[in-house]
Write a structure and sequence with these properties.
The structure holds 2 protein chains of 2 kinds. Chain A is α/β, with parallel strands linked by helices. Chain A has one domain (about 10-220): ABC-type transport auxiliary lipoprotein component (Rossmann fold, 3-Layer(aba) Sandwich), CATH 3.40.50.10610. Chain A contains 8 helices and 8 strands; from the N terminus they run H-E-H-H-E-E-H-H-E-H-H-E-E-E-H-E. The longest helix of chain A is centred in the last third of the chain and has 28 residues, at about 170-195. The termini of chain A are far apart. In chain A, about 35% of the residues are buried. The N and C termini of chain B lie far apart (about 85 Å). Chain B has helices at about 1-25, 30-40, 45-65, 75-85, 85-100, 105-124. Chain B is globular, with a radius of gyration of 21 Å. Chain B has one domain (about 25-120): Serine Threonine Protein Phosphatase 5, Tetratricopeptide repeat (Alpha Horseshoe), CATH 1.25.40.10. The interface of A and B includes residues 6 and 82 of A.
């Protein structure tokens, strides 16, 4: 009898999970991102993030969270610290300007097979009386430097309630939230990056390279 | 009884899966992101030192564990050496990055050329 409870909980969570995907399509990585398997990009150059959020600092902080998840996924990721300095020297602060331009220059200069566009859709903290809610919404795309094709694209959102453990005054709560907000943003942003990148075919340093075509990804409905 | 077994097997599976997830990471990046974030937020001398020490420890730990040094670590060390005008060391680091990641060759060659140029200017 006592065992029934966790199982029903498990069932409920399955319903929730499946509920999320009712408007979405399940596809194999091979079908959804066939360009990745055809072009086989090995190296990724991280471009400066496109910031659509209301937070001006989001760009600077978010850019520190991109490199590691993509490297762990098997790609050679150019060191963002150095490449962002070089891009700045070349006058490239905004990837917005690059969206419709040919990308072969990045192949010539860096030897990059593909570039990574990232967009910060939301990066904010909302306060209510008892809690504050942190929201980070991101989108990422891998674009080929030889064909200019989008080889992979995915987005995601993370919402986190930040609650104070001492249950003290509201003022106290808000100041705690503010002081921890900067660090929390990047922590959750990186967690979200890991989730987003997991939908991409893996890179050449990963053990299942070119063997993950049959893995299922959920493509959200437009 | 059946339920108990079911739950037990679920728990075991979860443990196995979580075990895989942690061991599955290709690289040990230590506190790379945290120290990089601190450096971007406040580029103080102290944070530069912290970042450099973290890069060195990632490099040493990976080599001790017989794992490949993660992408970018050696290049970042080279870049720091370049900024500190230790050109010979910079070239050594850039060459190491190139040797373990051939994808970085074009970019590392550019950085090596830059270091060599600065080195020869310094000697004059």
């Amino acid at each position: 009898m006592s065992m029934r409870y966790p199982i029903s909980l498990l069932l409920i969570s399955f319903f929730f999970l499946s509920g999320c995907s009712t408007n979405a399509v399940k596809e194999t990585k091979g079908k959804a991102f066939h360009g990745m398997y055809e072009e086989k990009p090995k190296s990724l150059l991280v471009l400066p993030p496109i910031n659509e959020s209301t937070d001006a600092d989001a760009k600077l902080y978010y850019s520190t969270t991109v490199e590691v998840p993509f490297a762990q996924h098997g790609f050679y990721v150019f060191p963002e610290k150095i490449t962002s300095d070089v891009l700045k020297q070349e006058g490239i602060y905004d990837a917005e300007l690059l969206i419709n331009l040919p990308l072969n220059k990045f192949k010539d200069f860096f030897g990059a097979d593909a570039v990574l566009f990232t967009t910060i859709k939301r990066w904010d903290l909302q306060y209510t009386v008892l809690t504050s809610k942190l929201t980070v919404e991101l989108e990422a795309a891998i674009k080929s430097t030889s064909t200019n094709q989008i080889l992979w694209k995915y987005g995601g959102i993370i919402e986190q309630n930040l609650t104070s453990s001492d249950g003290g005054l509201v003022a106290n709560l808000i100041s705690t939230a503010i002081s921890s907000a900067l660090a929390d943003y990047t922590e959750y942003a990186q967690r979200l990056n890991y989730r987003i990148v997991s939908t991409s075919p893996v890179g050449p340093y990963h053990p299942v390279y070119m063997k993950d075509q049959e893995q299922i990804v959920i493509i959200p409905a437009k | 009884m059946r339920n108990k077994l079911l739950v037990l097997s679920a728990v075991v599976t979860a443990l196995i899966l979580s075990g895989c997830a942690t061991n599955d990471k290709l690289y040990d990046y230590g506190d790379y992101t945290e120290t990089y974030y601190d450096l971007k937020k406040e580029p103080t001398e102290e944070n530069i030192v912290e970042w450099k020490e973290e890069l060195e420890s990632i490099r040493n730990d990976s080599q001790d564990d017989k794992k490949r040094v993660p992408p970018g670590i050696s290049a970042n060390l080279g870049y720091l050496s370049l900024q500190q005008q230790n050109y010979a060391k910079a070239i050594e680091y850039f060459s190491y990055e190139k040797s373990i990641y051939p994808e970085s060759t074009a970019f590392m060659n550019r950085l090596i050329q830059k270091a060599e140029k600065l080195q020869s200017q310094g000697k004059k």
